[in-house]
Amino acid sequence: MNATAAHPPAHLVDGSLYVFRAWHSMPDEFHDVDGHPVNAVHGYTRFLCELLEKTRPERVAVAFDASLTSSFRNAIYPPYKANRELPPPDLEHQFVLCREVTAALGVTVLIDHSFEADDLIGSALWHLRGHGISSVIVSADKDFGQLLGEHDRQWDFARNLRWGPEGVHEKLGVLPNQVADYLALCGDAVDNIPGVPGVGAKTAAALLAHFGSLDALLDRVDEVAFLRLRGAASCAARLREHGEMARLYRRLTRIALDAPVTDHVDGLRRAPVDTTTLDALCERLRFGPLTRSRLRALAD
């Protein structure tokens, strides 16, 4: 029996992505009882309500980043994500409130100061797979492609696009088990990972299609010069020069599967909602009647 037949899939949400989207898209006209801006909280709450209304998941978790400067990747490679500005204090405060809203709805919050949201989602997915439960990763981030097994799906919620392992190949030109190698080769500007100079996305995909993995490519780098590849000789030279850095970059691009998350089969089930806590939170955040009614319906 396959995983999808035995259990409904768990939904693992890239929470930080949707908080940032709400921050950028919601007008700055929402304030809590103390006068602090809560536009991102209002937008994120609407997103979370819609997700829970559509899916009614048995198992669900939302992962948040708390490790922009303290991730284990920063110790390996200090420039990692150094191009990103830290969230302003107003947004930092709203992240805390978004976690409160999530927990108040009985949804598990995943957060850690050494592991990123990607790692928490990857580790949760890995444990669930061990119990025969598939996962839907709710995110638009291409990095998650490396996690998708036969029965797993990724869901870009805003665009309502879903894909499985085949979709990873359609988007990037590589298989899920090659995504970390691919990003190590061509780099990832969003995370400040330079990759191998002169190796773009198409070249990286072509090299992995031929050699299968970064390790095989570097072990057989002398063959690269003879490939039907534009600038093959210079590509081989760059791979010789930067090969060890590419292996280092792969330690950054590979999602960890050993982050501290529950490995219990029921660890991510929605918990009962304390309506008193939820109502008090609605008062503090000055939610309107529509949002309040949606939250109360979800509490039931």
UniProtKB/TrEMBL annotation:
GO biological process, one term: DNA replication, Okazaki fragment processing
Molecular function as annotated in GO: 5'-3' exonuclease activity; 5'-flap endonuclease activity; DNA binding; DNA-directed DNA polymerase activity
Recorded superkingdom: Bacteria
The EC number(s) this enzyme carries: 2.7.7.7
Coiled-coil segments on the chain, per record: none
CDD domains: H3TH_53EXO, PIN_53EXO
Residues in 5'-3' exonuclease domain copies: 6-271
Keywords: DNA-binding, Hydrolase, Nuclease, Nucleotidyltransferase, Transferase
Matching InterPro entries: 5-3_exonucl_a-hlix_arch_N, 5-3_exonuclease, 5-3_exonuclease_C_sf, DNA_polI_H3TH, FEN, HhH2, PIN-like_dom_sf
Gene3D superfamilies: 5' to 3' exonuclease, C-terminal subdomain, 5'-nuclease
Enzyme's top EC category: transferase
Name of one Pfam family that matches: 5_3_exonuc_N
Xref: PANTHER family: 5'-3' EXONUCLEASE FAMILY PROTEIN (PTHR42646:SF2), FLAP ENDONUCLEASE XNI (PTHR42646)
UniProt name for this protein: Exodeoxyribonuclease IX
